[in-house]
Amino acid sequence: MRYAAELAATLDASLTGLHVGTRVPLHTPPGMPRPLLAEFIAYVQDDIQAAMIAGTRFAEWAHQFGVKSTAWQVALGDAADILCAAGNWNDVLVVERGGGRIDEPLALISEVLLSGLACLVVPEMTYAVGRLERVAVAWNGSAASTRALHAAMPLLRRAAHVILLLAAQPERMQGDATCEPAFDPRAYLRARDIEVKTESIEANEDEAGDTLLTVASRNRADLLVMGAFSKRRFNEWALGGTTRHVLQYASLPLFMAH
Known about the structure:
The chain is of the alpha/beta class. The chain folds into 2 domains: about 15-75, no CATH class; about 80-258, Rossmann fold, CATH 3.40.50. The chain is built from 10 helices and 11 strands. Helix 4 packs parallel to helix 5 and helix 9 packs parallel to helix 10.
């Protein structure tokens, strides 16, 4: 939350706090005694009431970091559904990556990213200052990395230094589509008055995640921008190995788009 507040102050942006609560069940869950159900409903109602009046405290808390405009939202239901809905009227979602079991927060982050929303993932165990001094951008020619670059432009315009990490062998457009001239991220950034330092990244799929984090660390990046790459698994899409590795082991905030 502090990272989101400091970043909002840096960008002179509005910050919305979102509390996701549990719905009061309409029917008694199988096997739950009625006294226990009554106790659970009372707990849920108390939680909702406390959340409804927390907006004032949230605004006061955010203002101490320089945030000028805030909003507070209370929603009930599935966290992934609510975050995806909230993304329709917000530019970027800031999500904390928990320091415990990676599968639980990763599942939520995956659903948000695969829905097409830009997402800032902040590691729980590392204090990150919401600043944009040095930003690393990973680009491998894929549609996801290009969309992440486009989505991150407001952040890149504020950065003092931008490091473009280019895949030694970028992906090519698949299928029969032909697009010439090919997209050049360096030309794209420089045309928008963003000077970049470039570094070539050569690594196979198994090493790519670790290599990206190593190079970002060596360049003292405050933020890593990258595409959230996916692959089909059974009848659904899932995040690819490189994306999962970076999400699990990154010690710096990540800006991702699918």
